[in-house]
Structures are given as structure tokens and as C-alpha cells.
Amino acid sequence: MNKTFDNTEQIQKKREDYIGWTDYFMAVAFLAAKRSKDPHFQVGACIVNQDMRIVGVGYNGMPRGCSDDIYPWEKGKKKLYVCHAEMNAILNKNSSDVWGCTIYVKLFPCNECAKIIIQSGIKEVVYVSDKKAKKVEYKASRQMLKDAGVICTQYKPKVGTIVIDFDEDNDSSPLETEKRSE
Ligand SMILES: O=c1ccn([C@H]2C[C@H](O)[C@@H](COP(=O)(O)O)O2)c(=O)[nH]1
Ligand SMILES: [Zn+2]
Q1: Which residue positions does the secretion signal occupy (predicted)?
Q2: Which atom of ligand 1 lies nearest, measured to the CA of 108?
Q3: Measured distance CA(166)–CA(168) in Å, rounded
Q4: Considering 9, 16, 74, 86, which one is annotated as catalytic?
Q5: What ipTM does this complex have?
Q6: Residue 1 above 60 pLDDT?
């Protein structure tokens, strides 16, 4: 019996349907992907340290100063310019380094991202989609990550969908849409 709470009244139990850590970090990666302007494929990444703190988030997009209204999004052209989600997440880090961290990503990383992941000291990759596995870039990334001892785990989230209802704590009228430039 916990001495701090040894009253005889019924104690309300915590809720049980909260999301687990892995679903949470993967959901952050998926949410970040929603910021991507790539019309064909949106990728997000979330880096987590050994204390389960998020230390970096990123998505695929044009470099700073290179307008995503002007630079090309066509397949075959964009690859010259687009910064990948993993690279952005690492560069956006709010800690001194990402040594020993885990990166949660929508898509298994390409060869360029694998090199950056390895060299930054990230020790684990958790991904959902492996849809590009047959491409040479992804065969190379898988090989490099394996040889570098980076653990790669495909993850099937425990929940199929996570709904975010911005109105859930509003009793009556829905939120007024505030005009903001994005
Ligand atoms: O590791 C990766 C691989 C790809 N992306 C981004 C880059 C592009 O915007 C899209 C699609 O890539 P393709 O060159 O058409 O394969 O996904 C990424 O962020 N991270
Ligand atoms: Zn990449």
C-alpha cells in the first residue's frame, strides 16, 4: 500500500488509452511530413535522445532562401535541390549532438541520409515504409547502416490513425478560423 495515498476512498485510475512512446514519436514524424510541399512524397523525421526527449524534427523541403514556389518539384529535377527530412531533423537539432539517438522516419532513409545518420552517431532507425527498398540508393543505405551497426526496425504503429481535433475542449461553437500566413 502506498503510504502517501492510504485513504479508503476510491482513487480514480489513470486513462489507459494514451499512445505509447513509439506511436507518439512516429506521429510527430508523420505530422512534420504534413509540412512538406513535395506534391509526390512527404517525409518527416523525429530524433529522440536516450532520455526520450525530442531533439530534432524535420521534413523534406527546399533549402532556406530557395523558394518552394520557384524551385522545381518534378521528379528527376527536385533531387538536385530538396533537403531530405532526416538531414533537416539532424541540422535542426536543439542539442549539442545526436549521438546515441533514435530517428523515427516515415520512409527508410536513402543513401545520402544514411551517411549523415551514421556520421552523426544516431544508433537506431525506426521506419514505417520500405516502399523504395528495390532502388539502388536504398540497397546502398541498408548495407551502410548494417555495416555501421545502426539498428533498423520497421514499425507497425499500434493505432491505425490518430485524430487531432482542435475543437475537442470547446463546449459549443467551433473555433473561428484565424487568418495566418504560412
Ligand atoms: O531519405 C529520404 C528520401 C527521400 N526523401 C524525400 C525527398 C523527396 O522530396 C521525396 C521523394 O524522393 P525521390 O527522390 O522522389 O525518391 O522524399 C526524404 O526526405 N528522405
Ligand atoms: Zn534521404
Answers
A1: none
A2: 1
A3: 6
A4: 86
A5: 0.84
A6: no
